[in-house]
Every structure is written in structure tokens, then in C-alpha cells.
Amino acid sequence: MRRLPTLGVLALAAVAAGCDEGRTSVLEPFGEIAIGAAVGPAALNLPGGSVTVAANVATIKLLNLRVPNGPTYHFWYVSRDANGVDVYTPAFGAILEFFHRDSLSGGTTGDPVPDPVTGNIITVKDTNEVSLIRTGAYAGTDLFAVDTIQVVMDSAADVGTTTPALGRNAVVVSLGTGAPTDAMFLFRRTAVAGNGALSFGNFGGTDAFSATNPADYVFAPGGTGNILFRGGEAVADIRELRRPPVGFFYRGFLVDTAGTAVLIDTLRSAYDAIASQSRVSLFDADVNPQLPGIAVTAITRSQVRNCTSGSGITTCANLTPMTLPGPATAPFAGQAVFILTLDPKGTSAELGETVILLANIPDRVWGN
Asked: How far apart are the C-alpha atoms of 365 and 35, rounded to whole Å?
């Protein structure tokens, strides 16, 4: 479990809802009384950043890179050769972390920075040099500490590695093992659009004549729904989620009033009378269009659901019940917020910082 100190101030309008007491399948939500809350868009801490190109050197400033467990981030120039084939050249240069620190804490240097109003010592930014060699591999970092990642891509050092005939057209960031064919989830077409913001989604290949490409996928947060509490089960039904970029997936969490988060489950398909369509994991919704509820760019119907460990329910459809400490008479006591996150595949079970949807849970749920 992880504490999330900032989301307690976020809230959406909560609504009460009733549900049919009948239950024809163990896959349906359990319990006689349902109390609900509206789930709506949040769009917090999406991966992003900007690119500045000067003297043939691109500098990327990156925001909100989550620490993955295994996959690493890689940085590339993209160009087209005389045959129209994309050529990916890895970055060569400094990778810097800009992180927050207390200027008076042990092991730090520099002068204390007083707040101009209160006079108290405030947090300042410092830098940490990660790499000065052609590696392109960066493991990400703790977003509670690091503010910005800066990658200075030295094109002069690439001489002799490749000679693209049409010049460098784009800068991309991938998440994977490092091969150019891995997911390119941040990109900008520098030859056409010049300096500016990176797009978050998937890069579709260079295009010398346009700032866009029909194969590009730019992620735009979206989706609505509600979360219901029936007995010892929490069920969030969500509609019209955007499909995640390649290499990313959705998960649902509950966060209590102290900021402690507990994982409910990875996103699944909605309940369906057809067993093969019901409650199927959507972990691979980024790459598998054959999963239930998947449209071209949307997940039309989906669900996050689990039952509490102390509820006594033995027919919960998910493999691992939630580990909420609440008693059987009030299993959701103290839960304040439902959060749907978008995370890189391979991340731990802790709450991620990229929040797509959330719902404020009404106090009356605590005694449901």
C-alpha cells in the first residue's frame, strides 16, 4: 500500500443508487444495498514534456515518467533514408534528473532558500547526472521526488553510425527493451513542427510532409461511470475509456482518508451473460483488439471489481480479494476516493501517479 498525499482534495459529485437484489451468477455484484458515486475524468500527471532543437541538438524535457519494473526508457532521433525507411538513432548525451530536496537536509549542498513570505526554508530543485554515454536506457524514477528528466541528444556524436538521406525528422521516447520497434509512447516531428510539446500515445513513423501521420495514436483521457458498494464488494462500471498507448494498462484503487491506497484490480471487461465475454482481463487492451468491449480507439464497457477479505464472500470473481482492514459490518470504512490509473506495464502494485478517472466516495458507504 502507498500513501497519496495530494488526491484527498479532489472530489466529484457523489450520487446514491439502488440495485436489483437478484443475483443470477457469481459474476454479478453481491449484496442487497448499493451506494454509489459518479466516476469522472481527472487527467492528472500524464507522461509528457517538450523538445527544443538548436544547432542540430535536441533537448528533451520529460515529465511524469513512472518507475517500471524491467522495461526502461530509451531516446531516439528518427529520420528517413533515401528508400523511405525509418532510421532510429539512439541519443548520445547527458541524462539529468531535476529533483526536489530540502536544502538543509543531510548530504545536500547549497544555500538554504527561505520562503519570501513566511521565512521558512522551502524545497528547492537540484540535479543529478544519470548518464553521459550512448545508452538511451533510463529506468525512470520516483515521481514524488523527481520533477523533470532532461535528455541532451548530441547529434554530432552520431556521425558514422548512420547517414540518413532526408535528415532528422522526429524525436521519440520508447518504453521497452531498447529496440526501435518497441512502443514509442512520446514523440514530436521536429522537422515539420519544430520546438514544442511531445505527444503522448504511439508514434506511427516519420512523415516528411506533415506534422501528423495517419498511423499516429495520440492519447486523450476520457471515460465516465459509477462505483457501487454492495455488501463487501466494490464495483466500478466504466464506459468509453480511451485505449491505452502500447505498453500501458489501467488499474483501479481505493484510497482512504489517511491517503493509504489499496489495489482493487486490473481493468476487466464488464459482466456479460456470455461467459467468454465476462470479466476478461483488459491488461492487453493496448495491443489486442479482439478483447471484449474493444473498439478502434476506445474500451466501450469495462469494470474494476473486487471483494473485501473480511466480508466473508467466497464467490468473488477475482483471484485476489482486496486487503481492506474494515470489519465485515462496514468493510469500506474510511475509504474516500476511487482512482483509475494508467501505468506502464511492469510497474509494481502501488498506486501510480497518472490518474485518468476518480470518484469521491460518500461517507455513508462506511456503514453500508
From this structure: 6
Question: For residue 25, what are the CA distances in angstroms to 30, 35, 272, 322?
Answer: 9, 21, 10, 20
With a cut of 50, which residues of the chain have pLDDT below it?
1-26, 103-110, 159-160
Residue 211 pLDDT: 83
Q: Residue 303 has which C-alpha cell?
A: 469494470
Distance CA 212, CA 204 (A): 9
Clarify whether residues 231 and 213 are in a common domain: no
What is the pLDDT, as a whole number, of residue 294? 94
pLDDT at 224: 94
- Residue found under cell 506502464: 344
Buried b (16+ CB within 10 A) or exposed e, 30-53: bbeebbbbebeebebbbbebebeb
In this structure, are residues 151 and 60 in contact, taking their beta carbons and an 8 Å threshold? Answer: yes
pTM for this predicted structure: 0.82
DSSP structural state of residue 6: S
**Cα–Cα distance, 354 to 344 (Å, whole number):** 10
Q: Is 52 found in the same domain as 34? A: no
* pLDDT the model gives residue 14: 28
Last residue of a domain, one of 196, 218, 240: 218
Q: What pLDDT is attached to residue 142?
A: 61
- Same domain for 73 and 112: yes
Integer Cα distance of 262 and 114 in angstroms: 37
- 134 and 228: one domain? no
Residue type, position 142, single letter: D
Last residue of a domain, one of 198, 218, 238: 218
pLDDT score of 120: 66
Cell digits for 226? 459509477
> What pLDDT, on the 0 to 100 scale, is given for residue 64?
86
Total domains present in the chain: 2
Cα 288–Cα 294–Cα 298 angle in degrees, nearest 5: 115
* 53 and 198 in a common domain: yes
225 and 144 share one domain:
no
For residue 190, what pLDDT is reported?
87
> What residues make up the domain containing 65?
48-218
Whether residue 165 is found in the same domain as residue 263: no
